[in-house]
Structures are given as structure tokens and as C-alpha cells.
Specification:
Helix content is about 25%, strand content about 15%. The chain is built from 13 helices and 20 strands. It is globular and about 65 Å long.
Length: about 500
Amino acid sequence: MRTLLAILLLSALFPFAPRAQAQKPNVLFLISDDLNNYLGCYGDPRAKTPNIDKLASRGVRFDRAYCTFPLCGPSRNSMLTGLYPNSTGILSNGQIFRQTIPKQWSLPQAFRLDGYFATRIGKLYHYNVPNSIGTNGHDDPGSWDMEINRAGVDRLEDQAKIFSLVPGNFGGTLSWYASPKSDEFHTDGLAAKDAEWVLERCAKEKDQPFFLAVGFFRPHTPYVSPKTPYFEMYPEAEMPVVQGVKEDQADLPPPALGSYKKEQDKLTDDLRRQTLQAYYASISFMDTQVGRVVDALDRLGLSENTIIVFTSDHGYHMGEHGLWQKQSVFEGSARVPLLIVAPGATKGGVAKSPVSHLDLYPTLTELCGVKAPANIQGQSLVGMLQDPNVKGRGWALTQVVRGGGFKRAGASAAAGDNGNRFFGYSLRTDRWRYTEWDEGNKGRELYDHETDPKELTNLANDPNQAKMVEELSMQLRGAVKSSFPADGKTPVIDKEGAMWAPNLTEP
């Protein structure tokens, strides 16, 4: 019955959708949740990700791609509006850009208004994971013609069996479970099936361009995936534990470690290995679902005229610097995978110059001839797709928040003068990562990626690097200034307080 109703819905939508003047490229936008660069195509020696690796060989892999804010809500709102968090006003979870800049066109909205059939399956904007799985989450209705929200056994059956460092807490806490049920029963497996179904309908209307966004929930906590084969791919005893943490932390300013959570004191080496095993298992499970969707695109003859994007909302720590999960500006948390397959793009190309999530908006609209808002803040990557050696902007900016909340609404987010709250900004160039906490008043960090790719030695106080610190500080501050809207003020949420987080079973 559900399938029949859905087919009738699609049949009703397509005939009345505006037809494009000429055939335009389709867009398949694939995004994973809380995925770092633990992928075979990025050189990870343990990751078993054949489908994403194959996708990388079909287009350009961006080796140094970065989010603007390593937290789901701010990152996704930023990426999907083409604006830095200082220009969206979304600096925490549970909020949507319509509360601050309601007239801004989102990326899928721009395509929708240009005659594309825009569909969302799963998580594109922020969700309260896992409780809001099966709902629209903190979604934007203006972005889509159709939304599909499935909930699998990971949400509806497995939660009572999940191990967590804080019993009963899953979304923001290290937690995992090796499920006895196979792919097709899990939320992401259902999402892949739904994507196949939508693509089958799209293949029958090839003169109607589509923007299909598929948001996979894994490997977000809780790390739930089928025990067979995914957990079995990664024997617990073979999982490494990060060493030398105390020595690494000795030269760090306190805000650099501000994302640490007290419950992580419970971690033993055995639990650390189990965490890593479950995280890798979730990645491989998600990779299989990516393969199903891309295979359907190929099977249906849609690949030749479809742009494929694969990315994550931000990176993720697995014990580096003594940190786990997100919300740091170290490489592990700020860096994201980014693959783009497009007609005319270099196959198997690797772009080394730093790029940002913000660059997706102008890139996709240029490739498809879709009108974009004049205020978006990214650069087009079309030149890099054609020649991966093109340098482009040459840097990427990432920020985080530390301290308390606002006391004075509407104040400039750069000033760090809202109560106890202050900001950390990090600039990534080809060679360096340079970070300032509260404009340097609460610490600085400098890492040379030519000699220290793991960011173990902070050179910010090294007299030999004083000139480099001065140069990068000026560059960073210029980048921060450019991250604000024209009036220099971060938009304010109309109503105080977070939005209600939808819950499928406890509405």
C-alpha cells in the first residue's frame, strides 16, 4: 500500500513540475553523518570501502576539504546555504536558517526553483539522532518537493540493546551495537532502497532533471550496523589505540581540548578498541549503501548526465589528542571527505589545494546553469574539476564555540563578548594549520603539515616561527572578517530557545 501511494504521489508531482528549457545535468548528493577520512581512497590502511573508493576513481577527490563548523547543525546549515556560520547565525544544533535568514535560498531550493525535482531521503539538515530518525528532523520544507523518512531496526528495535558510556544516552555519547539483522532492515539500508525506487521513476522522465539528496545516518552514534559482515571485518584485537596523549597535550591551550567529555574518562583500552571497531563497521555498512545507490544510477542509464557528490558534515576524532567525536578544529575534526563526479571532470584526479563545504553551492549551480544567490561565500570548484592542480582560494576556514551562551543579542560573533562565550578560528593552507582562540587571548596553535601531519607539535610559541605566526594571523583575521554578512553582524534567532526535536515514538 505504501509503495502504491508513493507511486501515485510521484506520478502526480512529475507532470506538473516545471520543465527545463534544455536538458540539464542531474545531481545525486550523497552525504554521510560524522564521517572522517577513514576511507580507502584517502589512504586509510584498515578501511574497507570499495564503493566509495570506486566513486573516487570516477571523478576528483579533494584531499584537503574542510567543514566550516565541526557540528552537525551549523555545518549543514552553512553548506546548504553557501554561507559561513557567522552569516547564517546558526551556531548550535536544533536550529534552522529560516529562523535567522528566512529569505535565503538553500542549495536544493535553488534547484527546485529552477525546475528540478528535489527529493530528500534521510538526513540533510540537522536531526536529533537517533530519536528523530523517521521524522523530518530540523528540516527545511522549502528545499524539497518530496521527503522520505524511514526508520529501521537501529531506531525501532535495537536501542534497548545498545552499549553506551552513559546508559540510555546515544546521540552525543560513544555508543554501539552489533545488530543481528541484515542491511535491508536498517535505516540506511531502507534509504538506499528508496533511492533506487526514486531513480527508477526519474529514469522514466529523463527530460525532468532531478536533485536527489540521500543523507545516511551512519557512522553517527550509536554505531549500529549488522554484525555480519561489518563488525566481523574489523577484529577488535587488531584495532589500534592512540599512544602518547599526555605528551601531545602538553603544548596545547585549554580551549583546544574543550570538546572532551567527562564520560570519556570511563574509556579503557578495550573499550577504545570496541569503539573503533564499531565505527569502522558503520563506515563499511554505509559504503555498501552508497554502492547500491550508485549502481542503480548506472543500471538505469542516468550516470552520463548526473553529477555525483559524496561528502560528510564534518570530521571525527577516534582518540587523537585524547579527543573523541567532533567540535575541535584539529585536522581530524575539521577535515571531510569530498568526491565530485561530473561530466568533463578529471577521472581519478586529486585536488590538493584546500577547499570548503561552502564551495559546493557555487560549483553545482555553475555546472547545472542554475541561478545562485549573489551573497553566497564559496568559490566554484569547476576549474579544479577540469584541472586538479588549479589552486583556487588556497585556504579554508573552520570555527568552533567555547564557553557560555549569549548575554547580548546581536553582538558580533567575532568579538567573543557574549557572556563567557568565545570563538576559535582555524585557517588551513596548503602547508599550515593556524588557530586562534578568542583572537589569540586564550591561545594559539601552529602546525606544519609537511613535517607534522598528525598535529602533535604546536609551533605557535617557537621564536623561529614568529614571522609565520604574524603572517597567518593577518590572513586568518581577513578570512574571519569575510565570513560575516555585509553589515558585519551575525543574524539573530528570532525567538530564543532551540527548536523542538521531532521524535517518532514519543511525539
